[in-house]
Amino acid sequence: MSTSTPPCSPGTTGLDALVDLLWDAVHAGDEYAATELVTQALDEGVDAESVLLDVIAAVQGRVGEEWAANRISVAQEHAATAINERAVAALATHPAARTTPSRGRITVACVDGEWHALPARLLAEVLKLRGWRIDYLGAQVPTPHLISHLHATGADAVALSSSIATRLPTAHAAITACQAVGVPVLVGGAAFGPDGRYARLLGADAWAPDARAAADRLARGPLPRPHFDHQQVDDLPHLADQEYTMVARSRPTLVRTVFTALEDAYPAMRGYDEAQRERTAEDLAYIVEFLATALYLGDEDLFRSFLTWTAGILVARGVPAQSLPPALALLARELKDFPRAARILERGTEALTTTDHITAAGNPA
Questions:
Q1: Distance between CA 125 and CA 52 in Å, rounded?
Q2: 206: helix, coil or strand?
Q3: Which has more pLDDT, 232 or 355?
Q4: Which of 83, 91, 112, 137 has a Cα at 20 to 30 A from 338?
Q5: 13 falls in which pLDDT band (50, 70, 90)?
Q6: Which of 231, 152, 227, 236 has its CA nearest to residue 198?
Q7: In this structure, is the dihedral angle defined by the CA atoms of residues 107, 166, 272 and 360, taken in order, positive or negative?
Q8: Three-class SS of residue 20?
């Protein structure tokens, strides 16, 4: 037994206490304590689905919160996620979690470019517990490979996961491709919005806010069969203006141009060290990528929310957020002939200037 195994028996504690115990193990980087805690909880009769969703998923949520508040590093966040994945694997092989498939076949996958696989893995394990036969394909599944898998297996439905909104154009292509071969698609993950607005916009057959709700929806009956003649442009007719395509294709050039000009527009940048300059270039790339996604979806709110979130992250790290409005102005100058892009950038700038993020960044004390 690990010398750092939590002193409390999971059988004598509630789920909240289990969350705290698992968080302590994960935060300490102790995978042995984490997996022992999970297996001991199952040994003592704690419901496997509750361990997955009310304990492991809750701890993973705390990991994200701690990263956003700059209380753990990116490396620590990755290490914590890896330990949570080990905890899920330990649960999956435990006798208490073994079930005989009694329902249909579901393919669970992340869209191409989506590396956050834990939400999809949690769903896959919950569906197994509920009696489904599951093909779990993991992170970043290219759409052609997904379709080949569907042809080979005859899945009753696909569950697609995406956590990052910039993966939504790719998700849309995957949804449409699955439907074209007659397989309905249920989607979930933070990328689709807290109310599933982007799931509906992109023509998914169903949406669920979490794994438990997804399992409940699939248990109620088959998803509606998709229309074979459904095309992506049917969902998003505004794409005919080609603004999304032009911005997406010119992203590297836009980032280089704005980065070069930003030093004059924001003189404080001249004092940045190499690491700060690299981070600024990364931030500019994310800004352009989210702008392109907002153009794809025709949704100004997505870009506004991303900017205010980014400003908050910068403030939490003690990084000046005053560089954001000049960067947006430079980007608007480059895209002056793109009316939708110009409008989205204008609304984003307004969102920054009407919050306290910029002021707070200038006064870290």
A1: 8
A2: strand
A3: 232
A4: 112
A5: low
A6: 236
A7: negative
A8: helix
Q: Of all residues in the chain, what percent are helix, strand and coil, respectively (each to 5)?
A: 65, 5, 25
Say how many CA atoms lie within 13 Å of 113 toward its Cβ.
Answer: 12
pLDDT band at 12 (very low <50, low <70, confident <90, very high): very low
- CA dist 79 and 329 (Å) reads 38
- Rounded Cα distance, 124 and 78, in Å: 21
Task: Report the length, in residues, of the chain.
Answer: 365
pLDDT band at 1 (very low <50, low <70, confident <90, very high): very low
DSSP one-letter code for 222: P
Q: What is the structure's pLDDT at 354?
A: 77
Per the prediction, the chain carries an average pLDDT of: 91
Q: Would you call 138 helix, strand, or coil by DSSP?
A: strand
For residue range 261-286, list pLDDT tens digits in order.
999 999 988 888 898 888 889 999 99
CB atoms within 10 A of CB 45: 9
Supply 57's token pair.
């998923």
The model carries a pTM of 0.89
Reading the block at residue 149, the tokens are 């898998």
d(CA 215, CA 212): 5
Quote the pLDDT of residue 92: 97
How distant is the alpha carbon of residue 113 from its chain centre?
A: 11
Tokens of 261: 């000009």
Rounded to whole angstroms, how far apart are CA atoms 204 and 176? 8
Tell me the three state secondary structure of residue 115: coil
The rounded distance, in Å, linking the Cα atoms of 56 and 81 is 10
Residue 364 has pLDDT above 80, yes or no: no
d(CA 264, CA 266): 5
Cβ–Cβ < 8 Å for 327, 279: no
Q: What is the pLDDT of residues 241-252, one digit of tens each?
A: 999 999 999 999
Read out DSSP for 223-273?
PPPPPTT--HHHH-GGGGG-HHHHHHHTHHHHHHHHHHHHHHHSGGGGG--
Amino acid identity, residue 279? R
Enumerate the β-bridge partners of residue 333.
none
